[in-house]
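pls design
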């Protein structure tokens, strides 16, 4: 796979442009700060009077109602939740038809382009620059002089310059410092959903919870079960991230290694792999997108409802105890800065949440 670096991403294609950042949440805030510190003129689109608009204004950004970006920005970064894209971007396109200046749209994820496509002006270049990390990491690594890798994909290219514009944008938010991987929009969307569902969120949470329940049901102390099966995931994941699978295995104890090599495949067996293929097919066919949309439409408050159903008080109480032992708190950004946390010896001083 071709990996693009900063030298491959000159700023010229968007030099002198005003960048509109649509949304000021997790990714929006981080990318707006990085763009500004890269020398770009930035205007934030947010709901007037809302907390995001107030925060962006207090932090020195010009803030306008989202539709007004059509007449103020040359490039708009769509950094809102996927399920809002159809309505907001369609409104932006309607405003642009009345006399806008937008030449390009950048999405942070290809989900809506693949499964719930918004109305797009045919004159717009459209691309995806998808950082492989949350906004707090995109921001903190930028401040440290490095960047979060990203996927790069072009969806529409009426100008013939969409790729260069996307590369220049990726450099401005710091991702080209680490590297950009070229993919298609569909590949980015499908890989992202699959990773979230089978490993990073769904698979990890289900595995941790099942392991916790197994130990507690067998009579082991819940706090000890949580500390072992949940709290230590981060440290092992960081070994895997930094050294790869072989390198991680060479850094664990002989007993842990033998257990890994002889028991791991009993957990992830042929049945597990078959179910992974089923999940991937549901993503590729659009089944997952249709199910998610139906859930949202049936109950707009689905998020809190489903979280309450999934929450287990005993599990969460044990988690509070384990996190207190480790000294973890919620990451916060003030004026673009994230305060250092006090960590016990041996725990890497980096937040990858």
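designed seq:
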């Amino acid at each position: 796979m071709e990996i693009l670096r900063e030298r491959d991403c000159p700023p010229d294609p968007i030099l002198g442009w005003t960048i509109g950042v649509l949304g000021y949440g997790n990714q929006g805030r981080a990318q707006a700060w990085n763009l500004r510190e890269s020398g770009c003129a930035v205007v934030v689109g947010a709901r007037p009077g809302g907390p995001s608009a107030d925060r962006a204004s207090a932090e020195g950004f010009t803030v306008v109602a989202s539709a007004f970006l059509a007449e103020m920005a040359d490039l708009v970064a769509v950094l809102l939740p996927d399920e809002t894209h159809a309505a907001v971007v369609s409104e932006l396109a309607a405003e642009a038809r009345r006399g806008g200046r937008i030449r390009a749209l950048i999405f942070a994820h290809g989900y809506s382009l693949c499964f719930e496509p918004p109305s797009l002006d045919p004159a717009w270049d459209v691309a995806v620059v998808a950082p492989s990390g949350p906004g707090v990491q995109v921001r903190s690594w930028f401040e440290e002089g490095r960047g979060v890798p990203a996927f790069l994909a072009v969806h529409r290219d009426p100008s013939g310059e969409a790729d260069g514009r996307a590369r220049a944008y990726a450099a401005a938010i710091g991702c080209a410092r680490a590297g950009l991987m070229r993919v298609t929009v569909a590949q980015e969307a499908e890989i992202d959903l699959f990773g979230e569902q089978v490993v990073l969120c769904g698979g990890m949470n289900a595995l941790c919870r099942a392991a916790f329940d197994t130990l507690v049901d067998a009579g082991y102390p819940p706090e000890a079960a949580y500390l072992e099966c949940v709290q230590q995931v981060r440290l092992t994941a960081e070994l895997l991230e930094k050294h790869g699978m072989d390198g991680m295995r060479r850094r664990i104890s002989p007993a842990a290694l033998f257990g890994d090599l002889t028991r791991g495949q009993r957990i992830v067996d042929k049945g597990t792999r078959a179910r992974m293929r089923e999940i991937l097919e549901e993503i590729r066919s659009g089944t997952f997108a249709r199910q998610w949309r139906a859930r949202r439409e049936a109950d707009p408050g689905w998020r809190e409802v489903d979280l309450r159903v999934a929450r287990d008080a005993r599990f969460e109480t044990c988690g509070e105890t384990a996190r207190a032992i480790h000294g973890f708190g919620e990451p916060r950004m003030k004026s673009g800065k994230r305060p250092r946390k006090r960590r016990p010896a041996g725990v890497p001083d980096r937040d990858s949440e």
